[in-house]
Amino acid sequence: MLGVAHFSDRTLSRKSYIWPFLVLAGVALFISFMTAGYNFWLAYAGLIVAGAAMYAPYGPFFSIVPEMLPKNVAGEVMRLSIAAGRWAGLRGRGLLVVCRR
């Protein structure tokens, strides 16, 4: 995570450091899914690689938003994004409670 953030800050090319890790995470999750019934350790290793690859590009991912938007609306858009995530988390938990009944 720190390496990805360091190199994306040095090159100022954030998008090119995000998508390869997300593709790697998707491939690792697929490998974990396909090998879960046959080889536990390979499936477990796939989950570990997928988890690491999903979190590695978080720094560059969240720094793209203020760079792409005008400075007078970047703060409001980020607050709206965080509020939407919190609202969805709250509603998702409530939906699980309703589905369990």
Written overview of the protein:
The chain contains 5 helices and no strands. It has helices at 2-11, 15-35, 40-55, 58-68, 74-100. Helix 2 (15-35) packs antiparallel against helix 3. The N and C termini lie far apart (40 Å).
Write a brief caption for the model.
With 101 residues, the chain is mainly α. Helix content is 84%, strand content 0%.
Question: Could you name the key traits of this structure?
Answer:
101 residues, 84% helix
Strand fraction equals under 5%
If you average the pLDDT, what whole number results? 84
Question: Can you count the helices?
Answer: 5
User: Compute the gyration radius: what is it?
Assistant: 18 Å
List the quaternary state of the chains: single chain
Helix content: over 70%
Unreliable segments of 5+ consecutive residues: none
- Could you state the order of secondary-structure elements as H and E? HHHHH
Major beta sheet, specifics? none
Strand runs, count: 0
* Alpha-beta classification: mainly alpha
Question: In whole angstroms, how far apart are the ends?
Answer: 40 Å
Could you say which overall geometry the principal axes of the C-alpha atoms support?
flat
Secondary structure layout plus pairing:
Elements: H1 2-11, H2 15-35, H3 40-55, H4 58-68, H5 74-100
Helix pairs in contact: 2-3
